[in-house]
Every structure is written in structure tokens, then in C-alpha cells.
Specification:
Shape: elongated
Helix content: 40-55%
Strand order of the largest sheet: 5-6-4-7-8-3-9-10
Number of strands: 19
Structural class: alpha/beta
Oligomer: single chain
Length: 803
């Protein structure tokens, strides 16, 4: 069977547990057929245009892109790889190949593979062939590395050089000649001319094009690899007939993924999308005006109090931008699983109402989309496809056109991790919405800056939502997106003036001289909200809450640390048990360390008892008196409405967020004055202390600044004073006057915060994606790949709710 050496369908590409192989060239055709389908579905307009422009000189650029994706496994045409199933390969490749395989696979005796990975061999072969066809060294290297990195990590220059010298692993001239013949046959089967006489020297790929090519190749390979073993073609396949069949089969396979782009209705105004809303809030109308006049993708920042309908405003903006900029859908990134579930309900209600919308995916670690595997077929650990298919099983939701999930799923696209280019590709065809951006820690904020830079580079529209975003931070976020779109590096942000207008909508497109701003009036519910402030000693705060409940009020008790919340709840239980049955309030506990099922029940009960009332403002399920004890989950998680609140001292922006849960909804009944009792801070002469462990949750300097600003206040006027308070506390240290006697503690806290910020920024910078130069070195995106879960600072005291 030595003549079989020259048969291009002889090398196997896929093998299950049986004896029928799927030829490597058939897998190349399968993958090209998938890529042909996905170019319009997976890639955003800018990435698609950049990729097609890169290959435009060859003619029929989409077809060349597809067949190059198909050649990603070229390195499998090697004796070391074929020998993984020597029993099959020997029959079809013949005795000469068998001799090579046995001589070059002695590693099997030790049980540990030491040969070159087939992805690196792909890079070796393709770089050589592209250079022979006339491609420039830079283009040949970039294309070859993009295809060779389809298992998640791009080859480095040194690894490719080592593989080039490892002639034994590649098999020598006979194997190289067979590989070259397979490439030419694949190109012929795809209906393209021979590559030798084409102007490959004019092929130039931008960083965006290379990310798109890498992501398209990998996802196409995953889908093509899901072929059932019973459909493997075998070595005697008629290749010309197989091409037509593969196109039909892979088209059907892509359709089964339900990745059809979302097509919003012709009218995407707020009233058209949300007809059950009585009247859009001013902020929602402002967002609608802004996105309707944008000339191209840009960044929109909505700064407004809780209760202004920011999530629905963002969905309306997303629908308009999807329609106007030819995008596939949106991804809404929320700070926690609780908020993700809540936003999912809002988005799902919208899409269900719009006939023909694709299925909305919920993406976080506890969602069914994350936990449910797909039906895939893999060759097992020897080939490495098993790990890739597992990644696809769990993460393909991010590739679907519409999704809601935790911000971690998006921030992973800013980390040097395996398959990071797939995440970027998945976001490239969407509007990306980030909610509660004021709540990100230093590590997350550093990653967000870099992600926004890359989203700008890919011309991905972004909507940021926040109730308490400092002005200088807003400016930095907008600058990150704009400089990415312009291909520049962000410059240090100079702090703007304090007390910017609020609520407001700020937006910028790539080539704007500066961001533009529209001031929006608050809704009637948030207009002239006066929150009275009182102080309650730590030992007395549960007694205070019960006194409020005795007056037929629903009270929230918010702590910063789980153990404090649990201790407070235990105290509450004992006190309630001593009351006459008819005077006992209903009591609830919610924190992030409850067992998943218990927490879900607690969330459901709180939503049911304290959520939005019906249209008349009445709610029969709301208890006459109640006390809810919780952590930060009550701050930015559930849509819950309380009459009054007692809160442990926290940074001013967190307190403002918590105030938004005081009389959040109109209920058509007389309600007491809005009241926030501050506890957990004690001041004796010149000594100020916070509850134990609080400074492990929040920077002591921010707590001191916040208390210095609030300690003499009896009221906060919302929204009039919100931006000013946030900018003072988070601005220059000199903006807050240090009270007498605090100087030493104040100075130590400020220095500690500076060190901590520098430390966490350094940690995030060490793992985040680089900003590419004009000639992108692909290996830099995945070099020293880190854990995909390194999106947040690790703080065991804080009630982190990562997803």
C-alpha cells in the first residue's frame, strides 16, 4: 500500500473509538464550510471588513478566509500525530510511513508525549507555504500563528523555530510533500485558483483582522468537530462529491446552534419596545435621542439614580445600535448573579414580546447555560480536542447573539487566557452593556479599562450604566474606548471639575474632539428625594430596627461583612421570639454564602414581599411589619423597596446605592419620612473606629473621607448632591478636610490606599491583554496565560458574588 502515501485523503484528522477515520482533508472541508457560514454571524462589521480587506487582493476574500480556516490542522499530517492511532494510519499510509511513525514515537514507552503539538506544526508548514507563494514575512507569520493557535494558545517564535528544526517530528521531505499536496487539493476543491500566481505580497492583516481570523478558525473547528463518529467519511471518500455534502451538513449544524442574528423591529423607540410602560423617564428619553443621532459605534455613559430605568434604557439603545450598525445582538454584563438574573428577566420579557427573536442566554456559574454540556464528539486527550470541546460546551453562550450574565464573562476577554481571542470575537458583533460600573474594585477597573480599549479597537458599541460614578472615572472609561478606536494609547486623565450635572447621558464616537453630554431631569419618584440621616450605636441598631417595625414599617438592615449580618440576624431572632405573636415582624436573611437553593428561596421571598407593586400601587403580599437583614446584595441586587433602613458605615457611593432602596416605588399610601440610620462607626474625641473587618472590605481612607463628609449632615438631597458627594470623596485627597485629631490615622490610611491601589493595578496589568502595535505579535495575547477567573480581587470577607 505504499502508493497510498500520495493519496491526499489517507491521513486521518478525526478518530473516535472505531476503525473508520475521518480524513484530514475532509475535516478541512468541514471547517471551511462552517467558517463560510459564520463570517456574517460571528464577526462584527469592523472585524469582518478588516479581514476581507486584508485578503482583498487575492479576489474572493471570503472563500480564501474559509479555506485557510480549514487548514488549521495541517500539522496533523505528521508521523508523530498519525501514530496516535498507528493501527489505522499504517493501513492507509503504507509501510514507509509506518516505519517513520514507529521510529519517531518512542515517547510512548515513557507514557508522556514529547513531540511537537500539531498546532505548532501547522504554523511551521503554513508559514513556509505562504512565503513560497509570495507573502511577506510578517503576513506569513501572523496568518500561520493565527491558525496554529486554534487550541487556545498562540505559538511563540521560539516554539515554531524549534519545531522547524525538529525534522523528525515533521517526518522529512516525503511528509512535507504530502502536506503540500493536501493544501493544493483543498484549495482546488474549494473552487479557488492555485496560490502561486496570486499577489500574496499585498496581503496585510490588522490586529482586528488577526483576532477575527483566530476566533473564526477556532469556533469553526469546534462546530465541525461535533460531527458524529458514524458519519466519518473513511479513506475511500469521493472528495468532489464530499464538498457539496459538507456544505449542506455544516449549514444545518450551524443552524442548530440558533445563532441567527437578532433583527430588532423597524421601530426601536422606547415606547415601541416597552408599550406597557406608562411614560418613559427623562433619562430614557435622553438615551433614545443620543443613540438615534450617533453616526457610528461609540460609547454611551448613563449616570442616573436607581429607579430611573437604566436597564431598559440600555436595551433600547442596544436595539437601535444593532439595527443601525448591522450587529448581531447584545451582551448585558451585570456585577453579580443576582443582578444578572434580574436583568435577564427584563431582557427576556422584551425579546419574547418581539416575534422571531433568538433565545436569550443567561451566563454565570450557576446558570443552566453554564452547567449544561453540549453533545460533542472529541478524539480524547491525545489530540487535545477534548479540552477545547469542553470549553465550547460551557462558553458558547457568549458567542450567541443575545445574552445576559456576570461582568466576569466579559472581563475574561481582557485577560491573557487560553482562547481569549474567541471571547473578543464573540463580543465583536454585539452591543456590550456594563451595569453598576462604579462598584468595580481596582483589579476589575484596570481590566475594564483594557477591555474598553480592545472593544474600541474592534469598533464595538458600549453602554455603561452607573448611579454613582466619579466624574474622573467616567472620563477615563470614555478615553479608553476612544483611544482604542483610534489605535492610540490612553493618556493620564486630568480630573474634571467637581459637581457635574446629574442625571446625565454622556457619549462619544471615535473621532469626536471630546465627549458630548445631555442633562436629563430625574423622574418624579427621584425628584427632590430628601433622605434624613440619624446615628445609631452599633449595639442598638437591631433594637432601632424593631422599633421601626413596631410602627408597621418594613426595615432593611445592611451590613458589609457576612459575619456581621449573621450575628445581627441571630440577635433579631432572639428579640422577636420574646415578642407577643401578634407583634412579631416577618424576618429575612440574605447573603452570598447561603447555599444556592436556600439563597434562591430567600431572594424569591424578598422579591415577592418587597418588590414592585401592581399598577394600582397596592401589594397584598407586602407584610405590615418586617425586618430584612442582608449584605451588599441588598445594595445592588434585588429590586426591593423598604420604608426605612439602617446601614453599617460604608463608602458614600455605596450608601447612596442603599438609599435607592428606601421607598423605591410609589405605593399609593402614606409613608414615613425617608430615613437612613448609620451604624458601625464610633467616634470618641479624636478617635474614630469602624466595625471589625470593615477595612478589609473597603479602603479605610475612603471610609474616613466618607464619614468626614457625612458626620455633621442631617440630610442628603438626591439626586442634587449625589455627584458632588461622590466626586469629593473620590477626588483629590485635599477635597475633604481632615477633622482635627485624625491627622495621623488619615495619613496612614491614605498611604495604605495608595500602596494597595498600586499593588492591585500591578497585579491586573500583569495578566491583562497588551495593547498591540501596528505589527501585532499574536503570541503576546496568550503568553503566560493565566486563570480565566482572575477577574476580581480575592477578598474573603467581602460578599463577592462572582459568576
Amino acid at each position: 500500500m505504499s502508493s497510498a502515501w500520495h493519496t491526499v485523503q489517507a491521513p486521518w484528522g478525526k478518530l473516535g473509538g472505531g476503525s473508520v477515520p475521518h480524513p484530514l482533508i475532509c475535516h478541512a472541508v468541514d471547517t471551511a464550510a462552517v467558517a463560510e457560514q459564520l463570517v456574517e454571524v460571528l464577526l462584527g462589521p469592523h472585524c469582518r471588513n478588516e479581514l476581507e480587506r486584508g485578503f482583498f487582493a487575492l479576489g474572493e476574500p471570503q472563500r480564501w478566509i474559509a479555506i485557510l480556516c480549514g487548514l488549521h490542522d495541517l500539522g496533523k499530517y505528521s508521523p508523530t500525530f498519525q501514530a496516535i492511532r498507528e493501527d489505522i494510519a499504517s493501513d492507509v499510509l503504507g509501510p514507509l510511513a509506518t516505519t517513520d511513525m514507529r521510529r519517531l514515537t518512542r515517547w510512548r514507552e515513557r507514557g508522556v508525549r514529547t513531540d511537537c503539538h500539531h498546532g505548532i506544526l501547522t504554523a511551521v508548514y503554513l508559514q513556509q507555504f505562504l512565503r513560497e507563494w509570495g507573502a511577506t514575512p510578517a503576513s506569513a507569520r501572523s496568518i500561520a500563528y493565527a491558525l496554529g493557535g486554534h487550541h487556545g494558545v498562540f505559538p511563540s517564535v521560539s516554539s515554531v523555530q524549534q519545531a522547524r528544526l525538529a525534522v523528525g517530528d515533521r517526518g522529512g521531505p516525503r511528509w512535507e510533500a504530502g502536506c503540500r499536496a493536501l493544501v493544493r487539493e483543498a484549495i482546488r476543491l474549494w473552487g479557488l485558483p492555485g496560490p502561486d500566481d496570486l499577489p500574496w505580497g499585498e496581503v496585510r492583516l490588522s490586529p482586528e483582522a488577526l483576532v477575527a481570523l483566530s476566533g473564526l478558525t477556532t469556533v469553526s473547528d469546534w462546530i465541525a468537530s461535533s460531527r458524529a463518529e458514524a458519519t466519518y467519511a473513511g479513506p475511500d471518500v469521493d472528495l468532489d462529491a464530499y464538498v457539496a455534502k459538507a456544505r449542506q451538513d455544516e449549514t444545518r449544524r450551524v443552524e442548530q446552534l440558533a445563532w441567527k442574528p437578532w433583527v430588532p423591529p423597524q421601530r426601536t423607540g422606547f415606547r415601541a419596545l416597552f408599550p406597557t410602560e406608562s411614560e418613559p423617564h427623562p433619562v430614557q428619553r435622553a438615551v433614545e435621542r443620543v443613540v438615534s443621532q450617533m453616526d457610528g459605534p461609540g460609547i454611551v455613559v448613563v449616570s442616573a439614580p436607581t429607579g430611573e430605568g437604566k436597564t431598559k434604557a440600555a436595551l433600547q439603545a442596544a436595539a437601535t445600535m444593532v439595527q443601525r450598525f448591522d450587529l448581531a445582538g447584545f451582551y448585558v454584563a451585570m456585577p453579580s448573579r443576582v443582578t444578572s438574573n434580574q436583568a435577564f428577566d427584563v431582557a427576556d420579557e422584551l425579546l419574547v414580546r418581539l416575534e422571531g427573536s433568538p433565545r436569550l442566554r443567561l451566563l454565570h456559574s450557576a446558570s443552566a447555560d453554564h452547567l449544561k454540556p453540549t453533545n460533542v464528539n472529541a478524539d480524547g486527550p491525545a489530540d487535545g480536542d477534548g479540552q477545547a470541546q469542553e470549553w465550547f460546551s460551557h462558553k458558547k453562550g457568549l458567542l450567541a447573539p443575545v445574552g445576559v450574565g456576570t461582568v466576569d464573562q466579559a472581563l475574561m476577554a481582557a485577560l491573557r487566557t487560553s482562547h481569549v481571542f474567541v471571547r473578543l470575537t464573540g463580543l465583536s458583533n454585539k452591543v456590550v452593556v456594563f451595569d453598576e460600573v462604579h462598584g468595580y474594585d481596582v483589579h476589575m477597573s484596570t481590566l475594564l479599562d483594557r477591555l474598553l480599549w480592545w472593544l474600541g479597537k474592534l469598533h464595538v458599541p458600549v453602554v455603561l450604566l452607573s448611579a454613582t460614578l466619579p466624574s474622573h472615572r467616567q472620563q477615563a472609561l470614555v478615553d479608553s474606548w476612544r483611544t482604542g478606536a483610534l489605535g492610540r494609547r490612553p493618556e493620564p486623565t486630568t480630573a474634571p471639575h467637581i459637581a457635574a450635572d446629574y442625571p446625565r447621558v454622556t457619549w462619544a464616537e471615535a473621532r469626536d474632539d471630546r465627549p458630548r453630554e445631555v442633562v436629563a431631569a430625574p423622574s418624579r419618584l427621584n425628584r427632590d428625594r430628601v433622605i434624613d440621616l440619624v446615628r445609631v450605636k452599633t449595639d442598638d441598631h437591631i433594637a432601632w430596627a424593631l422599633e421601626q417595625a413596631e410602627q408597621e414599617r418594613c426595615v432593611a438592615v445592611v451590613h458589609n461583612v457576612v459575619r456581621h449580618a449573621v450575628s445581627a440576624y441571630q440577635d433579631l431572632e432572639q428579640r422577636v421570639a420574646e415578642l407577643p405573636p401578634q407583634e412579631r415582624p416577618e424576618i429575612f436573611l440574605l447573603h452570598g454564602r447561603l447555599a444556592q437553593a436556600e439563597r434562591a428561596r430567600a431572594e424569591a421571598k424578598i422579591r415577592e414581599r418587597f418588590g414592585r407593586p401592581d399598577d394600582s400601587g397596592a401589594d397584598k403580599r407586602r407584610p405590615a411589619r418586617a425586618v430584612v437583614v442582608g449584605t451588599q446584595l441588598l445594595e445592588q441586587g434585588l429590586d426591593a423597596d423598604f420604608d426605612v433602613m439602617v446601614s453599617a458605615m460604608a463608602p458614600v457611593d455605596s450608601l447612596i446605592q442603599r438609599m435607592g432602596r428606601i421607598q423605591r416605588h410609589a405605593r399609593g399610601t402614606d409613608r414615613p419620612p425617608r430615613l437612613l440610620a448609620l451604624t458601625g462607626v464610633e467616634e470618641q474625641r479624636t478617635k474614630v473606629t469602624f466595625l471589625p473587618y470593615t477595612v478589609r472590605v473597603y479602603a479605610e481612607a475612603v471610609l474616613l473621607r466618607s464619614w468626614a463628609v457625612l458626620r455633621d449632615r442631617t440630610q442628603i438631597r438626591c439626586p442634587d448632591e449625589v455627584q458632588q458627594l461622590v466626586d469629593v470623596v473620590y477626588g483629590e485627597p485635599s477635597a475633604v478636610t481632615c477633622p482635627p485629631g485624625w491627622q495621623r490615622k488619615w495619613a496612614r490610611a491614605e498611604e495604605s490606599m495608595r500602596r494597595d491601589i498600586a499593588h492591585h493595578e500591578q497585579g491586573a496589568r500583569a495578566v491583562r491583554l497588551p495593547q498591540p502595535r501596528g505589527d501585532l505579535q499574536l503570541w503576546e495575547l496568550t503568553t503566560r496565560a493565566t486563570s480565566a477567573r482572575r477577574t476580581r480581587e480575592q477578598n474573603h470577607q467581602r460578599d463577592d458574588d462572582r459568576g
